[in-house]
Design brief:
The complex is a heterodimer of chains A (about 270) and B (about 90). Helix content of chain A is about 40%, strand content about 15%. In chain A, helix 1 packs across helix 12. In chain B, strands 1-2 form a two-stranded antiparallel sheet. The longest helix of chain B is centred in the N-terminal third of the chain and has 20 residues. Classes of the chains: A alpha/beta (about 270), B alpha+beta (about 90).
Chain lengths: ~270, ~90
């Protein structure tokens, strides 16, 4: 039985797809057979971030509709043979994802994989609700910014009332906070909510803090998930996050400002 | 921070504190509505309409709160601030 992880947020542009790609890759690098599914029907982008956009033949909706089987639609990652991608469809049909259809595909994948990572679209429409419905674990991706934190709280409400686990009175979804685009320098000057502030407001367990990093844009430019960039702070922070998801205790890094050299301090940067 | 910054005023308003306070209020409010039944917003609206037949009030003068005391008992608390001179 696979563990189903949803990467969700409510608000758009906070880093769900970047995080889904990084976390799925990280799990696969740890030897877990992992599939990452794009739930953003009509606005497919995970394929670009994973660098497999030219290898898409069949998609998630084709599989649900029986137009292709899973083996035809799954794309094997170039870099990691434990990792597979199931791309979203570019159809404009909003109701393409049904509970039965998605459930059937997840059941089938569940036999074969250790982890299923569901990359949720923004908002609280059908795609987002389907991405979270079957989840065992939720990674609530949040920026240290008021609208993102508020939307994350709304999504926590959905996880607790609209998911399969809630409807069937099972053990609740494990909820984790992933704070992205964090800037310790701005926290220090009182311009940005701190890790402690956001953790206190949302009151869920912190699984990772990803610093604002130029490496993220570079990674998406080249279609290589940022976790593969082992020289970048963001890549290392995602690697730590994956270890924590697997139950290891890892201290948090990049929470304080990088020390500047003597000359920089005198003359400014 | 360059050496020039030391001569500038250091009294910047701490906007992160403001953000946190605003969020704590709105999130508490959101969570209050989270557990309410689906009919609750409509019922609240209708209660306001009924009061308006007699007294002109605005929506923020009415607070309707549903509290779950234990498994068997919910309390509906209605608070109306009436304007002066009525």
């Amino acid at each position: 039985m696979a563990q189903i992880i949803v990467v969700t947020s409510g608000k758009g542009g906070v880093g769900k797809t970047t995080s889904s790609a990084a976390i799925a890759t990280g799990l696969a690098l740890k030897g877990k057979k992992t599939v990452v599914i794009d739930f953003d029907i009509g606005l497919r982008n995970l394929d670009l971030i994973m660098g497999c956009e030219r290898r898409v033949v069949y998609d998630f909706v084709n599989v649900i509709n029986g137009e292709a089987n899973l083996n035809q639609a799954l794309i094997k990652d170039k870099r990691c043979d434990k990792l597979f991608i199931l791309p979203a469809s570019q159809t404009r049909d909003k109701d393409a994802l049904t509970k039965e259809g998605v459930g059937g595909v997840l059941d089938e994948l569940s036999k074969d994989f250790d982890y299923i990572v569901c990359d949720s679209p923004a908002g609280i429409e059908q795609g987002a609700m389907m991405a979270l419905y079957f989840a065992d674990i939720a990674i609530v991706t949040t920026n240290p910014e008021v609208s993102s934190v508020r939307d994350s709280d709304r999504i926590l409400g959905m996880l607790q009332s609209r998911s399969r686990r809630a409807e069937q009175n099972l053990e609740p979804i494990q909820e984790f906070l992933l704070l992205t685009r964090y800037s310790p320098a701005r926290v220090k000057t009182g311009e940005m909510l701190s890790v402690e502030d956001v953790s206190e407001i949302l009151a869920i367990k912190l699984v990772g803090v990803i610093p604002e990093s130029q490496a993220v844009l570079k990674a998406s430019n080249s279609g290589i998930p940022v976790i593969n960039d082992e020289e970048s702070d963001a890549g290392l922070a995602y690697a730590d996050t994956v270890q924590r998801l697997l139950g290891e205790e890892v201290p948090f890094r990049f929470l304080t400002e990088e020390k500047k050299g003597f000359l920089k301090r005198i003359f400014g940067s | 921070m360059s050496i020039l910054d030391y001569f500038r005023s250091n009294k910047k308003p701490n906007t992160a504190v403001t953000a946190k306070e605003r969020l704590q209020i709105i999130v508490a409010h959101q969570r209050g509505e989270r557990d309410a039944p689906d009919y609750f917003p409509k019922m609240k609206q209708e209660i306001i309409e009924v009061i308006r037949k007699y007294v002109q009030i605005s929506e923020d003068q009415v607070s309707v709160q549903l509290d779950q005391n234990d498994d068997k008992l919910s309390v509906l608390e209605l608070n109306v601030t009436l304007p002066d001179g009525k």
